[in-house]
Amino acid sequence: MKKSFILTLLTIITLGLFQPATALAEEPQKLPSGIERDQIGQKIQDYVKEHEKTTAGMATAVFDKDGTIYQGNFGYMNKEKGVKADDGSVFEWGSVTKLTVWLSVMQLWEQGKINLEEDIRTYLPEGFLKNLRYDKPITMLDLMNHQAGFEEGAHAAYLENKGQTIEEILSVSQPAQIFEPGTTTAYSNFGAGLASYIVERISGQRFSDYVHEHIFQPLDMNQTAILPGFADNNYVREKRKKAQSYDTEGNSLGSAYFDFGLYSVGQAASSPEDFQKFAQALLKQEKLFQRSETWKTLYTATSTFPGTDRLLNAHGFMVEEYGTVVLGHGGNSTGYSSYILLDLKNGIGLTVMTNQKGEDIYNVLMPELVFGAKKKTDKATFENFKPGYYRSARYFETGPLSFARTLFYTSYVPKSMDNPQLNQNYAVLSHEGGQEKITSTTGDTLKISDTEIYKDYAMYFLAVAGVVYAFINLFISGVAGLIRLLKKTPAKMPKALRIWNTLTSLTVLATGANFALLFLAMTSGNIGFVAPWRYTIFAGLGLILGGCLVYPLLIKAKKGLGKGSVFLTVMTSLSALAVVTNIFYWSLYQWWAL
């Protein structure tokens, strides 16, 4: 009986010990957003259903360190042919490719082959960087933080690949350094490209070979390519040929294929499965480094919001604040958008891939289902904001694309709760060295003086006035010539001046037309706006107009001209001068800078 009592007691204790644990294990776990894990799939499906009219193709995965919580493919890779998105589809990474650069750098750092705080010129050929303005050295941390100070680089960012090496691309047409290193966050493809070149220099391998050997292969990523034309993976190349791209409304962009010259910063493409393998390794912190301390270093802050301890960048990993802090990187190519987001605190990750250009419904808004609502800018920041003209720190300051700095990169921002600079992303205001700036997760936006803006707009006005005058002049001269022909009356202006007047106005109109085509290319997202031939034309037209300006000063018959002829000559000369001044002011003649 005593033995029976003991057995009964042990049974009760055992049940008492293990039943609560079992019940606890069966309790649904919640994501940072508060949504239960087993409900996230339905939430995502409902979200896609809500936006299906504008959706093309989309693949997403929610996962933790142990595996996949939810994975889904939606829509079409080719709507016209009915090719659905599936596990074998191929999506472009865009700038998520840059994570391979920063991981490669950290691998070399772990091996003691690079000092992140050393002047990068230590690792480059002597005299390689030609447009540095500041004595303060650029470090690898500056490149990782996008704080090397470079303006937007047309050649590095938009050059189509024609077999050039990374070194060859970076050595030509380098962007100017317009900010002191470490002071301003201006996203830079050129800077990331420099880092990939340094990887080549230190490792002795072509960057693509290094990444395959040290990142893709260890993670068993067999459906991933990084070279232009996806030459390093037949599967990816063939799949990409069959896919189409779309805009944010779901309208076709055709294949939207572009061989990114500086492939190391934006060319990678893969299946959703490989993309998740990559992201999950980053979350699990496995396989890519030899020591756990390296992972810890990788995810520590290298840049913070001004005046705060809030994380802005961690060795190249960008930071977003939803209901929790997430690290990762987004990417956009000519027809694709993608995102990797990692919540290291809660051990949750998310990948998103779409075949839509500039897509944000899934890449920016849908993550709220997993991580909670995006952090908003605090009320005090709105109250302290100073209205005025603001310009993205990522802009063209010099060279033939400088005309875009005010047209496309600058806008007047009023003091309002609808302020787009403050309500789209969490932002902080600061004042350093006499410069007012807004810092958000996407970079810095700088307050520009009214004088500088008015000067640029005055130049735009002169150019437009010159072109409008040339059009009116040609029209009136044509009508007047036709009337004289019908009435058989002689012209009061000498024939040579009439020819000069027509030639000058035609050249002014041709310059305006060339600029209009350039403007359309930029606004339509056509990367051809950086084609050197456009600016060679500006140079040629500028030379012709220069000659036209000189001609009236040399002719002998100018003393006998009537008042009307003198007035016409002066006005036509002024229209030519207005256009020539713009060509020089915006450096539109510098075709060699592209």
Structural account:
- The model is unreliable at 1-27 (pLDDT under 50).
- The chain has a nine-stranded antiparallel β-sheet with strand order 3-2-1-14-13-12-11-10-9, sandwiched between helices.
- Among the domains are: 91-288, DD-peptidase/beta-lactamase superfamily (Beta-lactamase); 379-448, no CATH class; 452-593, no CATH class.
- The chain has helices spanning 2-26, 40-50, 98-110, 140-145, 154-158, 166-171, 189-203, 207-216, 234-242, 272-284, 292-298, 361-365, 368-371, 379-384, 404-407, 420-423, 450-487, 495-523, 532-554, 563-585, and strands at residues 57-64, 67-78, 83-84, 91-92, 224-225, 245-246, 252-254, 269-270, 303-304, 311-314, 317-321, 325-332, 337-343, 348-354, 388-392, 410-413, 427-432, 435-440, 443-448.
- It is of the alpha+beta class and 594 residues long.
- Helix content is 43%, strand content 16%.
- Helix 3 packs parallel to helix 7 (189-203).
- The protein is elongated, with a radius of gyration of 30 Å.
- Residues 1-25 form the signal peptide.
- Keywords: Membrane, Signal, Transmembrane, Transmembrane helix.
Quick tags:
single chain, 594 residues, alpha+beta, nine-stranded antiparallel sheet, five-stranded antiparallel sheet, 19 strands
- What strand order characterises the main sheet? 3-2-1-14-13-12-11-10-9
Compute the number of helices: 20
CATH class of the domain at 91-288: Alpha Beta
**Looking at this structure, what is the CATH superfamily of the domain at 91-288?**
DD-peptidase/beta-lactamase superfamily
Question: Major beta sheet, specifics?
Answer: 9 strands, antiparallel
Pfam families: Beta-lactamase (PF00144)
Signal peptide: 1-25
Domain Beta-lactamase-related: 48-359
Transmembrane segments: 457-486, 498-521, 533-554, 566-588
